[in-house]
Specification:
Length: 216
């Protein structure tokens, strides 16, 4: 049984369209601080797999504002919880000229304890020697060293991106930053779940995953 690991019900609604009978695993894995989503999702997938003992899919996403060098990016959840979505929109409107470009990005990280021998990249193998050379710190959680526990677990990654603009909030569908993200004239919050999935970062990553998973 595949477990879709998230605390966010909005993500689950969107994932169900691609993954028949997928079960949500409401597990709050450790989100490490990193500039890119891939390593965050990969680390989360290893931790969730060790917790669940079943195949897991972790979904890490964020909003990247071009004029802010990608902020809030990997910190999107923290910024939503602290500043709030509408404050981010006002900040963008005050500081950045039209067209206020931004993108949503999503990385799906799949782990089932096996290798992916005949699979093309990207695969995160948690290369500890490369991490050490780059001066990356180990993550300590309650005395256990996650990286040391997990270095034998490869994780398969699936990426999705969608480009758009930051606009004043419109619509009441979706979740998170959807009301302030406009894609080709419509905000994500004005779209039905199926319309959003057809163009969204998550829909694109899920479509790639679903195709690969079916053949596995
Ligand atoms: P989990 O980590 O438990 O999956 P989360 O909501 O914290 O739940 P993320 O860290 O991936 O998930 O989310 C980053 C932030 O980006 C968070 O504030 C979300 O609300 C927001 N976000 C992610 N996908 C989004 C989408 O499709 N539309 C709008 N906002 C989104």
């Amino acid at each position: 049984m595949l477990r879709y690991v998230t605390t966010n019900d909005g993500k689950v609604r969107e994932a169900r369209e691609y993954l028949d009978g997928v079960e949500q695993l409401d597990y709050d894995y450790t989100e490490i601080q990193a500039a890119r989503l891939g390593p965050i999702a990969a680390r989360g997938a290893r931790e969730a797999y060790r917790h669940a003992g079943e195949p897991v899919l972790v979904d890490d996403a964020g909003l990247f504002v071009e004029g802010f060098d990608g902020f809030p990016g990997p910190y999107s959840a923290y910024v939503e919880d602290t500043l709030g979505v509408e404050a981010v929109q006002r900040l963008v409107a005050a500081e950045i000229d039209e067209p206020r470009r931004a993108s949503f990005r999503c990385v799906m990280a799949y782990c089932d304890g096996d290798d992916f021998a005949a699979t093309p990249d990207p695969i995160d193998r948690d290369d500890r020697s490369a991490a050490a050379a780059a001066g990356v710190e180990r993550v300590e959680t309650g005395g256990s060293d996650l990286a040391a526990e997990s270095d034998a677990l490869p994780v398969k990654l699936f990426h999705g991106t969608v480009r758009g603009r930051i606009v004043e909030p419109r619509g009441d569908g979706g979740f998170g930053y959807d009301p302030v993200f406009e894609h080709e004239g419509t905000t994500f919050a004005e779209m039905s779940p199926a319309e959003k999935n057809a163009v969204s970062h998550r829909g694109r990553a899920l479509a790639k995953f679903a195709e690969w998973f079916e053949s596995r």
